[in-house]
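so my prof wants the structure for this chain in the tokens format not the other one, which i didnt know existed until like an hour ago. anyway here's the sequence
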Amino acid sequence: ARAVARNRQERFFTFPLETQRLSGTIDRVNVVVRERLLAEMPLEESARLCVIGDVRSFNNRRGPGAKLVITVFARDISLSDEPYDRNLILLSGTLCKPPNLRTTPMGRDICDLMLAVNRHYGRSDYLPCITWGARACETALWDVGTRVSLEGRLQSRSYIKVLDTGAVERTAFEVSVLDICRLSAPDD
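here's what i got, hopefully its the right format
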């Protein structure tokens, strides 16, 4: 783990956590952990871990790279003896951008959603989510302001971004939605 920040005399560290899907694809997310929690659970490379926490986002306005940075803020870390990786995220929030329905090069319908998840103290995290197939067509009809609850996984994927200076490989972090429920429409 490497140090990333100091706040109120407390240091925070970050480390990459990988989970393997049933397909064999590896998803990677950066975990932010308080120094105090890290002292209770020293990390070793390749250790199997259970991390429980909150998904956080912030806009990186400095330098190159990702503009929307997504991390997991660890509340608890323990060793895991589970034989398979489990990547589960539960969210409730509000759609804050119009849904974007599109078709992948493989002909699959997907819908991009941006979910605002409120935190304490008036802060919000903005999390890109994707729905698939019939769910994509359904969620594409929802309006900004719709409250939803969803279950999914936090995934990472590489893509090529074409810039004036040439093409660069980037990584996108998003929630791949397994189940989603509309809690209320904007007018409710």
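also thought this was worth mentioning. The chain has a mean pLDDT of 90.
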